[in-house]
Amino acid sequence: MIVVRNARVLTPSGIEDASVVIEGDTVHSVGAEPEANGHQVIEAGGAWLGPGLVDLHVHLRDPGQTWKEDMRSGARAAAAGGFTALVAMPNTDPPVDDRTTATAAVERAAGIEDVEIVAAGALTRGRSGEALADFDGMFEAGVRIFSDDGDSVPTAGLLRRAMAYLRDLPGALIAEHAEDRSLAATGHLHEGEVASRLGIAGLPALAEELVVARDLLLAATTGTRLHIQHVSTSGSLDLIRRARAEGVEVTSEVTPHHLALEESAVEGLDTNFKMYPPLRGRDDRVALVEALRDGTIDVVATDHAPHTTAEKEVPFEEAPRGVIGLETAAAVVATNALGGDPRLFFERMSIAPAGIAGLSRHGRLVEKGSPANLVLFDPNLRWVPGGFASKSSNSPFAGIELTGRVLMTIREGKITYEGGSG
Ligand SMILES: [Zn+2]
Known about the structure:
It is built from 13 helices and 18 strands. It has helices at residues 71-80, 99-110, 135-141, 156-166, 181-184, 193-198, 205-222, 234-245, 256-260, 282-294, 309-312, 329-338, 342-357, and strands at residues 2-11, 14-23, 26-31, 40-43, 48-51, 53-58, 83-88, 116-119, 145-146, 173-176, 189-190, 202-203, 226-228, 250-254, 299-300, 374-383, 402-411, 414-418. The strands form four sheets. Strands 1, 2, 3, 4, 5, 16, 17 and 18 form an eight-stranded mixed sheet that branches. Strands 9-10-13-14-15 form a five-stranded parallel sheet. The protein starts with a strand and ends with a strand. Bound molecules: zinc ion. Zinc ion (ZN) is lined by residues 149-150, 177, 229-230, 303. Zinc ion binds at residues 149-150, 177, 229-230, 303.
């Protein structure tokens, strides 16, 4: 039995100052502290206790590139970041694109204890953008989220066929990485002021917005549920708002780094600031924070993309795209967007993503009988990230002071992370 004393708890009736007792994999009570001795008692000191965080967008590099990350190290990083569930993108080697690869991914994920790993499947065979993947085989293996993340589905015709097919599989979701290759292929950072000053080819906002517009039109005509990954421009937000007003069933995500950083951060050509979509201008960043608060954007997702130091220690143009994010996400989001609002923090980082992924044991308000998938988060604790549990350390936030820290993560009643005392 675990007792978390003096927490600010996200319950069905709002935020309550309470003690929470966990027994087995379940919340046993929320309220006054129990009398009995012999419990493991955790003093929360007013930190937030809510449902464990859920990340819809993680690259675990397993199988195929396990020198960057693997399921086990990724799960440790996730637990250290307050996550109890994550969706693993299928761009592994081999990619998850049929019954065999999906079954292997689901079975290996089931052996991981620190976090629930949900395997996503590719939209096209081999992620080649040429033919549809084996949806029936993957669906029967348990896959519900389909994405060619890293690339968009290149043609409207192919995506429309994918949408028509997946519309009939209950719970299936298409998640799109929006990037028009013909506009983006030669770019390395946002096509804006900083790119022109440095004389490096940029990725225009248009590369994202064209694909977002196309996908929303296709979702409207097929009636298929669509999730847009890592939205980064205010133009994309306008398109999403308009589509929603017209009844299109679309959700979207933003990364912590797009909430916190702008193109100016790339000025020093530190490759730990290179990712897709790139860090945009100030107006875009401000619009993203606003959209996360007003609900235009449903969730924060990290796009955790590990690369080793050797891989990143090359000229900016040659460096691989992507940054890690699991261990800093909660703090970056609290520092830059949702720090004063526990209800909204848990909504965007746990409740909404669990709902989108259909994870019934995650994203639940804390009450008697709810699953003990929980995070204890101190919104006021200042710390400087470093010494990551991930195998990679390509973080733009290493060495930068953040406000808000995960103190403890509990998955199915077991403590998977404990630390963060400063
Ligand atoms: Zn992506």
